[in-house]
Each structure stands twice: as structure tokens, then as C-alpha cells.
Amino acid sequence: MSEADKLGAGAAAAAKVILPGATVGILGGGQLGRMIANAGSALGYRFIALDPTPDAPCGQVAEQIIAGYDDREAARELADRADVITYEFENVDAGVAAMLMEQSYVPQGSELLYTTQHRLREKRAIEAAGVRVAPYSEVASKDELRAAVAKFGVPCVLKTATGGYDGKGQWVIRSESEIDEAFDTLDRAQTQLVLEKFIRFDKELSVIAARSPQGEIRTFPAAENIHVDNILHLSIVPARVEDRIQREAERLAARIAEGLGVVGLIAVELFLTADGELFVNELAPRPHNSGHYTMEACRTSQFEQHVRAVCGLPLGDTSLLTPVVMVNVLGEHMEPLLERMAAVDETAERLGVAPKVHLYGKHEAKHKRKMGHVNVLAADVDAALAWIAETNIWRV
Ligand code: AIR
């Protein structure tokens, strides 16, 4: 057995502890990087982000290398200046990932990125971990699509294997007459296509799990998520489902973290059907929008937990301290939000809720762009939901 094999033989032997004072390099400098850097700075780490946008959200609270994500020279500079590397979005260029693995310490590895960048690989990995996904079929031609639609019935969902997010790269096929157009449209992405059976879910849930290189696993309480136009609108915690379902969702997320050998965070999105069955929809190997509630509502936030996990520190307690509803602030919500912020929030006082506004420092408030979020802490989630309704900021 070689030295390397011996080291790899026990997870504990391979675990490396990066102590505060060290510099964490982040591929990507958006809001997730910003919140990772803020939480990690409180632990005593330094941060440097690589992002093409000057004065990116993370660049405002950490150092920044301004360059494209596929710029190998810039990635090399990031490797030189950091003691450990992580990423805050999953579409990391494979060549850059490989180069960083070679030149630097990337505890999350490239395998997890490789798996979660591709829907088919991701589904197979989830199934291999013993967790259910919606029935699916790879489709390489219109004939195969026709056969798969006949098998699953309509509606069903055609998705690109790579590159889709926030509802992009998806087509809900509602009648057989849409098959040709759906195939032609998504086939332009020049990636594999996958047809999924449409799960008639009662609720959408998500659980964020963290795993350290030592193999310690912790899960955050399940969030109940409400999307509008395929973009996350609300995360409600505790999720309004039976305790049994909450525990089961956490158990499945822990199983996926273990099965995929995750280091860092894995966000697991699930569908809950009327008969109480859970199916995994998709994974994200990073902090997740549906975990922003943890910033004030849990003993440890997802961002702090991410830093702890990649640096090999003991993971923090994930207990929920208070009910909370997280509401996203998109570009179109900025004006009414800022208007309300000009006066004392009497609605919050009357309802006895404590809204915490977080803004990401993005310079352009584009329609549908994630600009910030509000964590509405309350004695119960109904009071938090009442505040959101009464502010009129999110009238749909
Ligand atoms: N992000 C990455 N994957 C999903 C999300 N939400 C975050 C990351 C990324 C930022 O969104 O933090 O850097 C990009 O936001 P925008 O508005 O510039 O497209």
C-alpha cells in the first residue's frame, strides 16, 4: 500500500484542519460568498474571492481577484494566495477545478461538483445512496422522448442535464402536441436531456446537511419552500408538516451527505406527496437560498457551518432557536422595501415580529435578481407570514 493509499484508507487520517488566520479562497463572489466570508471572518479566517464583476458582493467584505471563472491564470493566483479553496456556485469550469485540485487544497474535491453538475449523474448518485428520486428517463431523440412521455403520462418535465437553474432549461410537457417543440428548444443547449415524471407534491421541502472531512454530519431543520415563477419566494421553518416527515427529510439528507462523501454543505430539495412520500428533486453542493433562515434562527448558520466543515473544525449545533420565515428580496422588491425602511416599522411592532433585512450590495437591481432577503423571526410562522402580507412589498 502506498503512503497516499494509507492516508486515504481512514477518513480521519486524511482530514486536514485549517486554523483561523488562514486564508480561504472562494470561486465566485456573489451573495453566497459574501455571507460565507462574513461568517468565516467572525471565526478569524481571511477571504479572497475570484469573480468577474468589479466590487462583487463578496469583494465588498473580502479581497477579490477580478477575472473570469475560466481564467486559469487567475485561478492559479487564487490557489497561491489561499490555504484552502471552496466555491459558491456549482457550474465551476471542469478544467479550473482540476487545476485547483492539483495546485491547492480543495477539501470538497471535484467528484461532488462532477456529480451535481449533471442531472443524470446526480440522480444515479442519490439512488445509489438509497434515496428516492422521481422516475426519470434519459432521452436522446424525439422518438425516445415520445416513448418516455407515453410511459410517464402528461404532465411531465423535460430538463437539460446541465446548466439549468431557477426554472431555466426546463419544459413542462402538458400535451403530446408539445413534444417536438420541447425537444427542439431544449436540445439547443447541446447537453443530454432527461424526462421526469411530474410529482404532484403537496409541499416542497429542503434540508441542508453538512459533513466534515472527519465524517461528522449535521443537518439543519427542514424548510418548507414556496416558489414563485420558479424562484424561491419563502422558506418557512419549522415546515408545516408532521414531525415524522421533518425527521425523515433530515435523515435522507444525512444519508446523501454520507453516500456522496460530501465535505462542506449539500442542500437537498425534496417533494412531499399527499401520501407522505418524499422524493429528492435536486442537490446543490453549497450554501442554499433556503438555508438563509439559519443566519438568525439557528445556533449555527449554514455559512459558518460551511466554513467549519471545509476547514475541518468541529461542526456547530444546528438547533432552531425561533420560528422564522425567510422572504427573498428580488430587484422589483427593492423600491418598496427601501420606502418602508424610511420609517419605523409599526407593523412589526404590532405583530410582535422581528424582521432582519439583509442586502447583498449588488449594484444593479434587475427584475427577478436576488438582491437580499428578510428573516422574519416570530413566536409563530403565521405572525411572520402576516408581516410579509401586510407590508405589501411582495404583492404577487
Ligand atoms: N448563487 C449561485 N448559485 C445559486 C445562487 N443563488 C448565488 C452565488 C452567485 C450569485 O448567486 O452567490 O455568485 C450570482 O448572482 P447574480 O444576481 O449576480 O446572478
UniProtKB/TrEMBL annotation:
Annotated ATP binding sites: 119, 159, 164-170, 196-199, 204, 227, 281-282
Q: Does the keyword Ubl conjugation apply?
A: no
Which reaction(s) does the protein catalyse, per the Swiss-Prot or TrEMBL entry?
A: 5-amino-1-(5-phospho-beta-D-ribosyl)imidazole + hydrogencarbonate + ATP = 5-carboxyamino-1-(5-phospho-D-ribosyl)imidazole + ADP + phosphate + 2 H(+)
Gene3D superfamilies from the UniProt entry? 3.40.50.20, ATP-grasp fold, A domain, ATP-grasp fold, B domain
Enumerate the UniProt keywords alphabetically. Answer: ATP-binding, Ligase, Nucleotide-binding, Purine biosynthesis
InterPro entries assigned to the protein according to its UniProt record, in alphabetical order: ATP-grasp, ATP-grasp_carboxylate-amine, ATP_grasp_subdomain_1, PreATP-grasp_dom_sf, PurK, PurK_C, PurT/PurK_preATP-grasp, Rudment_hybrid_motif
Domain named ATP-grasp: residues: 123-311
EC number(s) from the headed UniProt entry: 6.3.4.18
For this UniProt entry, the molecular function terms from Gene Ontology, in alphabetical order, are: 5-(carboxyamino)imidazole ribonucleotide synthase activity
Q: Which pathway does it operate in?
A: Purine metabolism; IMP biosynthesis via de novo pathway; 5-amino-1-(5-phospho-D-ribosyl)imidazole-4-carboxylate from 5-amino-1-(5-phospho-D-ribosyl)imidazole (N5-CAIR route): step 1/2
Give yes or no: UniProt keyword ATP-binding. yes
**Quaternary form?**
Homodimer.
User: Function of this protein?
Assistant: Catalyzes the ATP-dependent conversion of 5-aminoimidazole ribonucleotide (AIR) and HCO(3)(-) to N5-carboxyaminoimidazole ribonucleotide (N5-CAIR). Catalyzes the ATP-dependent conversion of 5-aminoimidazole ribonucleotide (AIR) and HCO(3)- to N5-carboxyaminoimidazole ribonucleotide (N5-CAIR).
Family assignment from sequence similarity: Belongs to the PurK/PurT family.
From the Swiss-Prot or TrEMBL record, give the protein name: N5-carboxyaminoimidazole ribonucleotide synthase
Species this protein is from:
Paenibacillus oenotherae
